[in-house]
Amino acid sequence: HTICLWDSGFGVPCGAYISVSDLSKHLWMHGVNGPAKSVITCAWGGCGRAPMKRESVVRHVEEVHLQVKYLCDQCNASFSRRSSRNAHVVKSHPHT
Hints:
- Strand 5 (70-71) and strand 6 (78-79) form a beta hairpin.
- The protein contains three helices and six strands, in the order E-E-H-E-E-H-E-E-H.
- Helix content is 31%, strand content 12%.
- It has two domains: 2-65, no CATH class; 69-96, 2-Layer Sandwich (Double Stranded RNA Binding Domain), CATH 3.30.160.
- The two termini are 30 Å apart.
- By secondary structure, it is of the alpha+beta class.
- The strands form three sheets. Strands 1-2 form a two-stranded antiparallel sheet. A two-stranded antiparallel sheet has the order 3-4.
């Protein structure tokens, strides 16, 4: 769990206690919704990143701000993206 630092207006962070698994739903309440290709600026704790596609915001918050790591359960290699971990497992541990 983590505290949401998304700017809820006037520079005040949200402050809600959220789980990473609920991050997408929570950011939806902050307006991170609409068409996948719509452009949104990250409002997490003064982030200075250029605006990005809506479909990338949750992944950006997970990787950059929350520093979520996905571990390989076979060799403990660490990945910032679930898809990278899954590709690693298929390639490096095909018989598990």
